[in-house]
Amino acid sequence: MLHIDRETLFIRFSEFRDVRELIMLDHLIWTEDTAPAALSWRSSEDYLLHAPPGSQLVAVKGDTLCGYVGFGCPTGMKSNRHVYEIHIAVHPGWQRLGIGRSLI
Q1: CATH code at position 75
Q2: pTM of this prediction?
Q3: N or C, fewer C-beta in 10 Å, the chain?
């Protein structure tokens, strides 16, 4: 496995400015081949309801968003407050470089 220089990889909480790239990454990664159904966001607003700024860690190299790890409650039910959902995606062009490991 190749490794990316961790000094050049920056991991931070997601911000509003990341929405477009995060949507594109989701559409690229979560297809019918990798999930029970292809993931499709109808709009930025729809995406932000599911993943508001700060609910993900994003890996950035320069100006490029390479991947993310997201976390949050799958439902708004009080009985599910103890349940957390974690999902991770790394852009295919940046896979196998240790970015996913760095995010975790």
Answers
A1: 3.40.630.30
A2: 0.83
A3: N
